[in-house]
Specification:
Distance between the termini: 55 Å
Mean pLDDT: 82
Shape: globular
Number of strands: 9
Helix content: 25-40%
Order of helices and strands: EHEHEEHEHEEHHHHHHEEH
Radius of gyration: 22 Å
């Protein structure tokens, strides 16, 4: 029944309402895979058809946001009674010469397009034509449906490091509740059902160390505001310099990528007593500093980065509290010329 409707939880609703033409609110991921030995010319096509022909779809991938007079103007999740898997599961081929450049150009176009709210908010693209023979998979999901960590866990649940593991299910295939994929689907499903709200609030309080005083004011919030007013690093920054980046943008997106050995980043963290995230942020800081210096536009004070935080990233068993995501404001130290000083800051 189309009218078995579930209200959107506040986090999902926020992502949906924040979206506009210039600011689509989906997340995306690109993975590259080597073909197995002996794969024939039709390998990718066969893989696509197997994924497309999935008949039993998990509820998470069937629902879409909807509102009307019947819902009193409120956004709810309803099942798509005209679900067309060929709209969501797509097969593409790159033009010659099939470089990574052509792949990034395709992903840029795909990522620039908003997901239609009259359909389930996801797409999956299988891409061939890379001249080195690799196969690319681009996935696109709306942030109201899943957060980044839930999406990654759902993807990981259908992958295997064992080359002899075959017949892995599609992410959208309905699985038994106790299976690995089923648990991942259930975890992502909770975010839209409202079950996760109280857990999210508890996680946020725990993550920020919030306790409430007699007046009902969170002490951590008061401390955060005081530090912000003194222009100290905190989860809320009231001091961010204007830069050439502070202007309206269009909906167009350009996808680019670079890679570094993970063991090298971890080694830097171990040698300096910092985390992997600290090192990555310091790398971003150095890149932004170099870029703005080249343009003669580096501000005297540090850039501020809003860093998303998965509130259940370390929970045993993968969490399962849905779209539990927060953010903190981090001074990047772009005003510091020394790389070690930026990392320390």
């Amino acid at each position: 029944d189309r009218w078995v409707a579930t209200p959107l939880d506040p986090t999902a609703l926020g992502f949906l309402l924040a979206e506009n033409r210039r600011m689509p609110m989906h997340v995306g991921g690109l993975q590259l895979y080597k073909r197995p030995e002996g794969a024939g010319r039709n390998y990718v096509r066969d893989l696509f058809e197997e994924a497309r022909d999935t008949t039993d779809i998990a509820p998470l991938f069937l629902k879409h946001p909807y509102r009307s007079i019947k819902t009193a103007g409120q956004w709810v999740w309803v099942e798509d009674d005209q679900f067309d898997i060929e709209h969501h599961v797509r097969h593409s081929a790159l033009p010659k010469p099939g470089r990574v450049r052509e792949l990034f150009e395709l992903v840029s176009r795909l990522h620039s397009t908003r997901l239609a709210t009259e359909r389930p908010l996801w797409e999956w693209h299988l891409i061939e034509g890379l001249r080195d023979g690799r196969v690319a998979m681009y996935t696109k999901l709306h942030h109201s449906l899943v957060d980044g960590i839930s999406a990654m866990r759902l993807l990981q649940s259908i992958l295997s490091s064992d080359p002899n593991d075959r017949g892995m299910p599609s992410p959208w295939a309905k699985r038994p509740p106790g299976s690995k994929v089923g648990r991942a689907q259930e975890a992502a499903e909770q975010l839209a059902s409202g079950q996760a709200v109280s857990a999210q609030l508890g996680a946020l309080r725990s993550a920020l160390g919030i306790s409430v005083d007699a007046a009902g004011i969170p002490k951590a919030l008061v401390k955060t505001l005081n530090k912000s007013l003194r222009n100290e690093t905190s989860t809320l920054s009231l001091y961010a310099p204007n830069t050439i980046l502070n202007r309206e943008i269009t909906a167009s997106r350009r996808f680019a990528a670079q890679d570094w050995p993970l063991q090298r980043i971890r080694a830097i963290g171990k040698a300096t007593g910092t985390t992997l995230n600290d090192v990555v942020l310091a790398m971003c800081s150095g890149a932004m500093r170099t870029y703005l210096i080249e343009l003669g536009e580096l501000p005297d004070t540090s850039l501020i980065a809003m860093v998303p935080v998965g509130l259940h990233a370390r929970k045993p068993g993968g969490g399962g509290d849905g779209n539990a995501v927060g953010s903190i404001m981090v001074k990047l130290g772009t005003d510091l010329p020394d790389a070690e000083s930026r990392l320390e800051a």
